[in-house]
């Protein structure tokens, strides 16, 4: 499980840096200031959760089964939360209307909250 966590963290971190650079340089002339801030929010949360997975991989207080649950909450959580934010922030710059993705963002946020909650319960209940 730890190898999966580190690999996923690496992919999330790597892509967060690429997307952050793309947002700061490639989208600067296309998006409004508010849209850029929104895009950056997606990048921040993606990176936060890449670091979260790295922390989880190195943590000995959390059981393997709890790590697995957290892993499967974080991955779709980041995809739904950050992914929908990326598309919504660039909505006006594309020919595709992504506004229908609005309800997916809070679902992703809920999955991330549940992952952090699972971490709390796993550590709190550890004897």
TrEMBL record:
GO cellular component, alphabetical, reads: plasma membrane
Question: Which Pfam families does the record associate with it?
Answer: DUF423
Instruction: Give the record's membrane topology.
Output: Multi-pass membrane protein
Query: Keyword annotations for this protein?
Result: Membrane, Transmembrane, Transmembrane helix
Q: Which residues form the signal peptide?
A: none
Q: What parts of the sequence cross the membrane?
A: 47-62, 69-88, 100-124
The main location is membrane
Q: InterPro entries from the xrefs?
A: DUF423
Q: Where in the cell is it found?
A: Membrane
Q: Which family does it belong to?
A: Belongs to the UPF0382 family.
Cited PANTHER family: TRANSMEMBRANE PROTEIN 256
Q: What is this protein called?
A: Membrane protein
Q: Which organism is it from?
A: Flavobacterium orientale
